[in-house]
Fold each of these.
Amino acid sequence: MSQIESILKNSTLSVTTGRKRILEIFLSSNNALAHQDIESQCADEYDRVTIYRTLQTFLEKGIIHNIPSTDNITRYALCNEACIVSGHHHDNHVHFKCDSCGKTVCLDEVTIPKVQLPKGYTMKEINMVVNGVCKTCR
Amino acid sequence: MSQIESILKNSTLSVTTGRKRILEIFLSSNNALAHQDIESQCADEYDRVTIYRTLQTFLEKGIIHNIPSTDNITRYALCNEACIVSGHHHDNHVHFKCDSCGKTVCLDEVTIPKVQLPKGYTMKEINMVVNGVCKTCR
DNA sequence: ATGATTTTGCAACAAAGTTGCATTCCCTGT
DNA sequence: ACAGGGAATGCAACTTTGTTGCAAAATCAT
Ligand SMILES: [Mn+2]
Ligand SMILES: [Mn+2]
Ligand SMILES: [Zn+2]
Ligand SMILES: [Zn+2]
């Protein structure tokens, strides 16, 4: 059984060609992908709606996580391990978006530092996104 | 001269009723606002396109900053001081989005902690967004 | 292999964002 | 106070993005 198939099986998802293709696109990319990025790679093979639904499914199953940004475009990246605990992701790495090449990457080795919230606030998820210039663009 | 007018004047913007109205909406709100939030408060007075253009102008002038989120909705909040330096904002406070009431707020008193990027990466802006339950919803 | 269940494609729709252009408004100088 | 030039606005048309219902197709357990 291939890596791709076991990812799907482990998440109790049926193995369909569409899901395998989208997973393959993620695995062969070294940066985060927006819906549009995926669509432009397989719009001839799969319907737009299928891509939306597949991304949604992957999110819920903890196969991918989404990365916030100020440009109104949510990007997605593979989760390293099973990272769904009681309904929400617990990724704890920093994300970086390059102002020059536009690419967004997971900085898996950079952990989000702790932060003290004011009294009364409960923390479920935390996201940190850094903008700047990446190492290939400088 | 009113507070609202001086904000516009200080940013070398002409004082129009639309800009004053949108500023007023921000000033009277205690949470961050999405385009849609503003539109629903003044759609009868001003065109959708004007709101888009006004938010864009305010952003560029450093009157408001935008807050990233994973739900594909950018929200905006007033900047505390002039926070535009060489073309980019330098807000350094944490943002909080409540999963219960959906409101996003600036935690002005919580400073984003420093983080060490890998070699070769240059930091321009940094954003931190925490999800959870706010003090009024718990 | 068969049938129940899930996934997909299609169509239709709704919402969000963009652009060009004519009109209106604001500001400056007189 | 007024006129003229430049900036902002409204409107229309359009593109892009996201959603929903339903019938056809694919997947999976038996
Ligand atoms: Mn990541
Ligand atoms: Mn803020
Ligand atoms: Zn780059
Ligand atoms: Zn709340």
Note: Residues 14-17, 35-36, 48-49, 52 of chain B lie near DNA strand C (CB under 10 Å from a C1').
Amino acid sequence: MLAIGRLSKDSGVKIPTIRYYESIGLLPPPVRSEGNRRMYPPEAVRRLRFIRHARELGFEIDAIRRLADLAQDPAQPCCEADLLARRRLIEIEEKISRLAAQRDELVRMIGDCTHGRIEECRVIDTLDDHAKCLHARH
Amino acid sequence: MLAIGRLSKDSGVKIPTIRYYESIGLLPPPVRSEGNRRMYPPEAVRRLRFIRHARELGFEIDAIRRLADLAQDPAQPCCEADLLARRRLIEIEEKISRLAAQRDELVRMIGDCTHGRIEECRVIDTLDDHAKCLHARH
DNA sequence: GCTACAATCTCCAGTCACTGGAGAAGCAAG
DNA sequence: CTTGCTTCTCCAGTGACTGGAGATTGTAGC
Ligand SMILES: [Zn+2]
Ligand SMILES: [Zn+2]
Ligand SMILES: [Zn+2]
Ligand SMILES: [Zn+2]
């Protein structure tokens, strides 16, 4: 059995975050010691690492809840887990293309600016009029 | 003078957002009509479009506040505006590389999975152990 | 003038995923 | 017993909105 500080160190998840995950039902409430301290079984480290890893890959809490539940159930088919991963992948690709478009605009704005006064600034000028952008939408 | 609904349509910024921008001091409080309605000068459309455009390029409100103020002051040197743009560009590049790393992991997880049961699922398996990832960090 | 209906007003709460502070209580070592 | 560390609960704040409730104002048609 581990105290919360130990669990935090072993899993790499901050103490307030662990309590937060408990409060939203992502991490099951552990037993308490006589003095009301949370006492975790060793498996909690694994679950929390799983959660952390999924968060690092950008999964939302709801998706992680499903993924973590599925991980506990080895006989189930994995199509739902794979679907969640594919959804996340699509999301990532959309984000990347949006950011790449923003990057293109900024590179151009900065590159075209002669760095004189505001009145000739390409950055301000472009922000002031989207028609001066390469991409129709951002 | 435009009412808020008109301003919203002309600028593409939703009414509650316009009021929100006023509340945080990004948009100056307009004069009011006898009946306490906000009445905007035509220039408000331009300012709001500027703000919206900068938001679409991912600038934070604080940066936009500076940029919008600088835009009003044509004689100033534009180095600060350019610096804000360069900062945003760096931020974008960092985001893209983080997302690209996530994408690589997900593509591999999904591609390697034989889509059988959870116990053999590469998605769950990889989430469970970051050592199975390509990238050391995400 | 009256009646709908649309537009706007203020205030407040919710979103997401944490993060941190205040103040109190428990716990281990010297 | 005291000192200092850990943990407890509760609450508020983050960023940038978003939307609902309930009240008021403006406008068009009759
Ligand atoms: Zn410039
Ligand atoms: Zn643009
Ligand atoms: Zn699978
Ligand atoms: Zn990993």
Note: Chain A has a mean pLDDT of 97.
